[in-house]
Amino acid sequence: MVSNTTQQDQHHLPALLRISEVRRLTGLSDSAIYRAAQRGTFPRPLKLSERSSAWVESEVRGWIASRIAERDSKSSRAA
Question: pLDDT digits over 2-19, tens only?
Answer without folding.
Answer: 555 555 566 789 999 999
